[in-house]
Specification:
Blueprint lengths: L1 H14 L12 H11 L1 H16 L8 H13 L8 H9 L3 H31 L9 H30 L10
Helix pairs in contact: 1-3, 2-3, 2-5, 3-4, 4-6, 5-6, 6-7
């Protein structure tokens, strides 16, 4: 899943790569799938692996703290989607489609929100000097990072809402 995440990250970077970093975050799909399947700890491990591999592939780093936020923290917070593993699995077992969609979208929202929050903080602290004259740094950071994180949330929600109910074996570990 880490490899798939990196391939999706590369492909999404072809469509929209922001000048100071950031792109549509298809990388979240495999991390969310594993977080739902195995829980927060598995998502955390994948997030750490992704962060390390992204740091080896042309990172944009202004300072060590910014690099830590934009790569490590932003990759790891996706694992918070695993908090909804139980409700998603229960909704699948109970064959309640609306609940499945609700919890999947909520899981993607939580991952997207905390990822956006991480990028927002990094942007305010480290990149607000790029803001147009007269624009507060926090407004610039929020708008800049929302231009790719809002579409990321929408696309990942749609993909996972289509994928998980139709292939529920992706979220249930095989039992022997």
């Amino acid at each position: 899943m880490t490899s798939l995440a990196l391939v999706l990250d590369y492909l999404s970077g072809l469509f929209l790569r922001m000048p100071n970093g950031g792109s549509i975050a298809l990388i979240m799909i495999p991390v969310i799938l594993m977080s739902i399947r195995w829980g927060v700890s598995a998502g955390f491990i994948i997030g750490v692996l992704i962060a390390g591999l992204q740091l080896m592939n042309n990172p944009i780093i202004a300072t060590p703290v910014q690099g830590f936020l934009d790569y490590f923290v932003a990759s790891v917070v996706i694992c918070l989607s695993g908090l909804f593993s139980g409700p998603i699995k229960k909704a699948i077992q109970d064959k309640k489609r609306k609940k499945q969609f609700f919890y999947i979208i909520l899981a993607v929202f939580v991952a997207s929100f905390f990822r956006l929050l991480t990028f927002f903080i990094s942007g305010v602290v480290f990149f607000s000097h790029y803001a147009p004259k007269g624009t507060p740094g926090w407004v610039y950071s929020l708008v800049y990072n929302s231009t790719y994180m809002v579409p990321s949330f929408i696309i990942c929600s749609i993909v996972l809402c289509l994928l998980i109910p139709s292939a529920s074996r992706l979220v249930f570990p095989q039992q022997k």
